[in-house]
Amino acid sequence: QVQLVESGGGLVQAGGSLRLSCTASTRTFSSGVMGWFRQAPGKEREFVAAISGSGGTTYYVDSVKGRFTISRDNAKNTVYLQMNSLKPEDTAIYYCAAARRRLLGSLTTLTEGYDNWGQGTQVTVSS
Predict the structure, then answer these.
(1) Alpha-helix runs per DSSP H in 3-127
(2) What is the Cα–Cα distance from 59 to 104, expressed in whole angstroms?
(3) By C-alpha distance, which of 4, 19, 13, 127 is closest to 77?
(4) pLDDT tens per residue, the chain (127 residues)?
(5) What is the rounded CA–CA span in Å between residue 52 and residue 32?
(6) Neighbours of 43 (CB within 10 A)
(7) How far is residue 111 from each of residues 16, 28, 88, measured CA to CA in Å?
(8) Residue 98 and residue 25 in contact, taking contact as beta carbons nearer than 8 Å
(9) DSSP states along 37-95
């Protein structure tokens, strides 16, 4: 069974930075689309960013464009989310997700487009 393990969450002041990491237990999933989602209290889980299997294509929700960067190291089965200029509204539990498909497409921003999920890591941004 594929496992995704996130790390790097924490408490940071507004304007600060954090880098989240997500490591997959098998190379099969590490070569597919990887995504980050987040869920704030009382809200639905929402898409944040995704990266294709090769790492050549990325996609972001408008609210994080220019502030967040998704990247991956397939040799380490790891995907990263560099978060800069953090805002209080970025506070949420951040989840890593993995899909078997290698290309971004219509399923990229949908939770049902992913096959495996991590346990989540808390990010709290204080004002």
Answers:
(1) 27-30
(2) 8
(3) 4
(4) 679 999 999 999 999 999 999 998 876 666 899 999 999 999 999 999 999 999 999 999 999 999 999 999 998 999 999 999 999 999 999 999 999 899 999 999 999 999 999 999 999 999 9
(5) 7
(6) 9
(7) 28, 19, 24
(8) no
(9) EEE-TTS--EEEEEE-TTS--EEE-GGGTTTEEEEEEGGGTEEEEEE-S--GGG-EEEE
